[in-house]
Amino acid sequence: MYNELSPRKQAILKAIVDAYIESGDPVGSKTLTQSKQFVLSSATIRNEMAELEALGYLEQPHTSAGRIPTELGYRFYVDALMQDYALSQGELAELNSMLKAKSAEIDKLIHNAGKVMANLTNYPAIAVKQGQGKNTVTRFSLTYIDEGNFLLVMVCGSRSAKTRFVRTDIPVNEEVLRMLEQVLNNFVAGKDLSTLTLPYLMQMEQCLGNYAGLVSPIIKFVYEAVDKDEERALHIDGVDKLLEYPEFMESGKLKDMLGMFDRKDELFELLDEEGDDVTICIGREKGVEAMAGSSLVFKKIVVGGKTVGAVGVIGPCRMDYSKVVSAIRYLSDGIAGVLYTPQNGQLTAPTEQDDPNKR
Amino acid sequence: MYNELSPRKQAILKAIVDAYIESGDPVGSKTLTQSKQFVLSSATIRNEMAELEALGYLEQPHTSAGRIPTELGYRFYVDALMQDYALSQGELAELNSMLKAKSAEIDKLIHNAGKVMANLTNYPAIAVKQGQGKNTVTRFSLTYIDEGNFLLVMVCGSRSAKTRFVRTDIPVNEEVLRMLEQVLNNFVAGKDLSTLTLPYLMQMEQCLGNYAGLVSPIIKFVYEAVDKDEERALHIDGVDKLLEYPEFMESGKLKDMLGMFDRKDELFELLDEEGDDVTICIGREKGVEAMAGSSLVFKKIVVGGKTVGAVGVIGPCRMDYSKVVSAIRYLSDGIAGVLYTPQNGQLTAPTEQDDPNKR
DNA sequence: TTTTAGCACTCCTTTCGTTCAAGTGCTAAA
DNA sequence: TTTAGCACTTGAACGAAAGGAGTGCTAAAA
């Protein structure tokens, strides 16, 4: 697909993208000849640039400005030209200190990851905690509070639990709750929602006699608990960093971004991309209009085969991809490492980290 | 304190603030005479304006511009001059539809409140869910998952519960968990953290024999659970609305705002103000530098004597205070109303709203 | 055939002066 | 005490001119 580009064209394209990423100004032929990396006259480079433009890799904001990469240009750059960036000692230290933080609670870890990413890369960072694909409540537990109130605990899978306070006008006691608990565990635990037909629920209500009235509110909570969207959370850190890039200062770009940050649905959509390594969305590639001029780079955090979240950054298309990619890869893998316990492939409770030689 | 201002000065100040709030342009003497509300010449009004400026209520961006209110001017306006705004039918409908939403779960309610506020007022809205002042776990409950894992449920007060998954290398079963549960309820439930001295904990460990090793991780979770800050959350909706006000488009104001939105600590501080009705912070009044040129209007949501959160908006000092105040008051009280159940003064479970005549 | 020097041309950006309009403060008269 | 009148200030808007960066093309050189 890209074979059409001669090595020299590639080198020139790379130089242009590199320069533009750094400066933000359109780069002209003179800039390249001055950089000494080519033993060519500016005229030759101009010819090449004109061809690269014809091929769709470059564009001119206007005659007599230099060239800037198109989305296609960036795409080729990240796919084929970009060099690996070696994180500096300081950067590694920053990332590591975050990974070694006391709490390995997933929420905090992911949230902190966002802050660190934003700081390190100087782009707004996105940190997602993904809802688990669980769609059944595996176990119910009821805790008595007083006659009119009890706590409903729903365990979903082996790594998530939801609680709800239930107020009831039918006075309950420990004994009743035990019974109700058992009924719930028999009838509902482990069952798919589709099982919960009306007749099925009525059957359940019969088992409960006077307490049948509790079924419907509880079932409502069950529905809420298994709602996948419920549990996913997306944080954006360092939004103000956008202002450091002049491309956002004018026109409606900033508004588009902030609007997208506010709504979040487009972001979730973009982040749903499959792909297990770092994913790079350049501009409108994925059909999101608000992404015009901006790129999103992220990587899922996969623990024991399950995607538990993602970290990434969003910024102008002229983003320091190589550094960003390195940082994201390191952090994403690092978080996965902290959360993973080889023995059982499960998410670990925080204590596990602090006391590894307990046994 | 404000007696120094003659009624006419007050009227003129009010007219200026009103006009400036609406237009955003400095208002001159001519504008006021043209508005027909004064039977005075522009010269007279100019004199009054000059005096209001000398008194610190107005300022001029530059000679030959009209006057704009100072922070003091706004302060006087909101304290003494502002008229009540009657919410329109449409606005009331919007607010009510939100209050009648299916779920009365406090998190969602408050979160939605933010969205609605931002929409209605056209300023970014702030929605806070406050950490409850609870500082003890009132009840423990353990749920068996498998030999190496169980769920720890901590009930705090009668309106909040936390869950943690505990992984253990000491195999457990239902029976052990019952015992542990009992010990926890005896030793820790309802106790202040200061009670949990090392000797006390060791005593507890003795009761548990082989399972003493579980105490320390659990106590750590207890500490986490009662951490007040843990539970408070602050959402900001409609950040992009800031861009509709030209005052933010230039200079570093926007960056200040976004930075403040990001950090949130200054916001928490501002929102900690006491005061049970709508609170209005104008500019740097409260010493927050980033608030220069912006105002924050909010009201706590108080349910049964407890502050459970707050809603507010933040925007330029030239904010439509009267509308904002009305909307915030209505919404804050409305949410409190939805959450309050007169019979017991407690937070109610969602079902309560849908099924009020269950008994 | 490829590269390069030279040059005319385009178009943005900056600067600078001019004009324009808004709004003021002051003075003197009503 | 109020008002008409007027000189003055000042930012905003406009346009012309200058400057500069960068291009494409042509023709010569390699």
Structure, explained:
The structure is a homodimer of 359-residue chains. The first copy, chain A, is an alpha+beta fold and 359 residues long. Chain A contains 14 helices and 12 strands. A 5-stranded antiparallel beta sheet of chain A has the order 7-3-10-9-8, with helices on both faces. In chain A, helix 5 packs antiparallel against helix 6 and helix 5 packs parallel to helix 13. The longest helix of chain A has 19 residues. The C terminus of chain A is likely disordered. At the A-B interface, strand 4, strand 5, strand 6, helix 9 and helix 11 of A face strand 4, strand 5, strand 6, helix 9 and helix 11 of B. The structure holds a DNA duplex (30 and 30 nucleotides).
List keywords for this structure.
homodimer; 359 residues; alpha+beta; five-stranded antiparallel sheet; three-stranded antiparallel sheet; 14 helices; elongated; disordered C terminus; DNA-binding
Largest interface: A-B, 51 and 50 residues
Shape summary of chain A: elongated
The average pLDDT score of chain A comes to 87
Oligomerization: homodimer
Helix content of chain A: 40-55%
Distance between the termini of chain A: 56 Å
Number of E-state strands of chain A? 12
The biggest sheet of chain A amounts to: 5 strands, antiparallel
Structural class of chain A: alpha+beta
Number of helices of chain A: 14
Alpha carbon gyration radius of chain A: 27 Å
